[in-house]
Design a protein that fits this description.
By secondary structure, this protein is an all-beta fold. The chain has no helices and four strands.
């Protein structure tokens, strides 16, 4: 079973966050307009290169985290 973690943080398109489960680097596997925040925001999906944990996070058009909690 894949567990999903939703986090916010400062990031850009080249960012490779650390997996919250195993600390391995994650890779971006999806980018789309945010379904709730609209075209000015992006929903990014990352997958761990080791344990395959999946997490998403929000960014505005400048790559800054959204204010939504």
């Amino acid at each position: 079973m894949i567990k999903l973690t939703i986090v916010e943080g400062s990031f850009g398109s080249a960012d490779r966050p650390e997996c919250p489960q195993c600390s391995a680097p994650m890779k971006i596997v999806g980018r789309e307009s945010h379904p709730d925040l609209g075209e000015s925001y992006e929903l990014q999906t990352f997958e761990c290169t080791s344990c395959h944990h999946v997490m998403t996070r929000n960014a505005d058009k400048d790559g800054k985290p959204s204010a939504e909690k």
